Amino acid sequence: MTAHSHSHADMLPKGTLITAGALVLFALTATATVRLAHIPAAASPVAMRDAGHMVPVEQRNLRFTDRADGAVVIEDVDQRATAAVIEPGQKTGFIRGVMRGLARERRSRGIGNGPAFNLSLWRDGELSLTDSATGRSIELTAFGSTNRASFLALLPKAPVS
């Protein structure tokens, strides 16, 4: 029985080590280039709108409340009227999913469902939902035209998309 001695150098092929080293060098070079050249980070849509003093072409302040039968009641806060009711089983899972995530964030911060959400349609066709309590904004257009349309329908003068 012969004893084999293995060094760490024998565990990885030389090509793998060279590739890993090249990737680390590339990452460091890219980071240094961005910092030294003062290349700005990509701006968020919210920051771009703020910088350009853009105002929505249409907006609505909404409150979402769960009903005992599983329906979601969407209230227009300013008009004090029901904007929509999503009955259990309706194909509006996207609205439920978005609101579930926002409600979870509110609960973690000790915020109830009282403060409104602002649904805004922008001149460029983008659609956003902003939580007035947390400041979190979701760009709804990023989720595709069908999902965007489910929220767009909540605007009183919603254009056909």
Summary, kept brief:
The chain contains 4 helices and 6 strands; from the N terminus they run H-H-E-E-E-H-E-E-E-H. The protein is α+β, with helices and mostly antiparallel strands and 161 residues long. Strands 3-2-1-4-5-6 form a 6-stranded antiparallel sheet.
Helix content: 25-40%
Please state the structural category: alpha+beta
Q: In percent terms, what proportion of residues is strand?
A: 15-25%
The total strand number stands at 6
End-to-end span in angstroms?
77 Å
Radius of gyration, in angstroms, nearest whole number:
25 Å
Helix and strand run: HHEEEHEEEH
Shape: elongated
Oligomer class? single chain
Task: Note poorly predicted spans.
Answer: none
If helices are DSSP runs of H or I spanning 4 or more residues, what is the number of helices? 4
Q: Specify the biggest β-sheet.
A: 6 strands, antiparallel
Strand order of the largest sheet: 3-2-1-4-5-6
The mean pLDDT is: 83
How many structural domains are formed by the residues? 2
